[in-house]
Amino acid sequence: MAFESITEANVEELLNLPKRITNANIRAKLKECHEQINYTVICTTDDKYRFELYTRQNKLEGMEDDFSCGLSWVAANGETLTLCRYNGSSHSHPNHLENEKLGYTCHIHKTSERYIIANRKPEGFAVKTNQYYSLKGALHSLINDCHITGLQTEQDLPKLF
Questions:
Q1: Number of folded domains in the chain?
Q2: Does 39 fall in a domain?
């Protein structure tokens, strides 16, 4: 399946497949100014589907809200397509086709057929969220939203102020 032919239904199908992380004990790697972990994820019902999950956290002082975690589908030919990405509030994300900016808020990207057709970044569209405010909480949300097991996560506690 070429990425150009991906539909909203294909994306939903891939996101809803039951998945399991196979290397939960992998160590974080420091790359430039951020810490990154790359997990291998398999579909538990059909071994032809493979995925990668990553977490990335900026380690510079004062940049705690600069984080991201995402899930990519690994096609049979080895190419990857980011299906979704959960970002922190470090930047104001622009939804180019809608001509809008989300402001400095946590947001969730999801691959969109519209953005693929428009020759934009497939996961270029995002929506604001208050599901999380840290990388720990974003990873918990992604794991639950994308039906992934094999990794213990914790949701963010509600902010009181």
A1: 1
A2: yes
**What pLDDT, in 10s, does the model give residues 98-148?**
999 999 999 999 999 999 999 999 999 999 999 999 999 999 999 999 999
The pLDDT assigned to 1 comes to 46
Structural domain that includes position 36: 3-149
Cβ-count burial of 27 within 10 angstroms (0-12 exposed, 13-18 middle, 19+ buried)? Answer: exposed
Q: Please name every residue paired with 10 in a beta bridge, in sequence order, or none if there are none.
A: none
Q: Report the run of H or E that residue 8 belongs to, with start and end.
A: helix 8-16
Q: What is the pTM of this model?
A: 0.94
Residue 101 included in any domain: yes
Within a domain: 156: no
Buried b (16+ CB within 10 A) or exposed e, 110-128: bbbbebbeeeeebbbbbee
The span from the CA of 34 to the CA of 14, in Å, is 28
DSSP line for 120-152: S-TT--EEE--S-SSHHHHHHHHHHHTTEESS-
Question: Would residue 161 count as lying in a domain?
Answer: no
